[in-house]
Amino acid sequence: MAATDICTRCNGAPEDLLHTLRDCPKAKGIWLKLVHPGKWHIFFSASRLNWLTINLSSNLGFSGNDWDVVFANACWFIWRMRNAEIFYGSRVSYDDPVIAILKLSSDSIRPMNKSIVGGSRIGPSVNRFICWNKPEKGWVKFNVDGVRKDSLSLTACGGLARDSEGRFLTGFVHKLGDGTVLNAELWSMLSALEVARCAGFKKVVIESDCLTAVKLVNDSVQAMHPCSTILS
Ligand SMILES: [Zn+2]
């Protein structure tokens, strides 16, 4: 964890979500080529939540683009570029991020269009805005995750706890060695419980993005299951 919140890529501002994804010069250079010049004033002035809502509901790009797809891919690409630069330094270089983002977007639009039969999508389409929800008053929410890096045969887990106002309380990261990603997901939940006990949190919610892990925790698991040691 860094000693300061200043963006190490530009040293120009605290590295919050909007700076990382939009305002950092490294990101802005990409957006200036993707966003229509007539929409720059909206795009670069919106507050965080508005920025996400506007971009997912209207076209700020050039005509012929599925802007919500381009926008999502660009955010993901910029986030990956940022991580690659910070964690791998000068070893990572991209020829042209804008072309890469547009290619990524057209590649993901094609399979989406395959689900359209006779002009209408299979099943009803529902627009849903997904965001983090605060826990109820008096409760603490842990968001946890587990990862595996195949090339290093390493797994790790981490999590952070926030209160009912969304304030950061504590966090953890653990290097776990070789194993499955499911194992790492389960370790993230177990670690959250241990951190909660040490911190004296009595009412705790643990949120994971791994449905399999959540089901394993909620259902009774047989002793034969490879993850039974953690689950017990
Ligand atoms: Zn920056």
TrEMBL record:
CDD domains named among the record's database cross-references: RNase_H_like
Domain RNase H type-1 per the UniProt entry, residue ranges? 143-225
The answer to whether the entry has keyword Nucleotidyltransferase is yes
Query: What Pfam families does the annotation carry?
Result: RVT_3
Keywords on this record?
Nucleotidyltransferase, RNA-directed DNA polymerase, Transferase
GO terms of molecular function:
nucleic acid binding; RNA-directed DNA polymerase activity; RNA-DNA hybrid ribonuclease activity
The record, for InterPro entries, names: RNase_H-like, RNase_H-like_dom_plant, RNaseH-like_sf, RNaseH_domain, RNaseH_sf
Q: Which PANTHER family match?
A: OS05G0353850 PROTEIN (PTHR47723), POLYNUCLEOTIDYL TRANSFERASE, RIBONUCLEASE H-LIKE SUPERFAMILY PROTEIN (PTHR47723:SF19)
Question: What's the protein called, per UniProt?
Answer: Putative reverse transcriptase
Q: Tell me which species this is from.
A: Senna tora
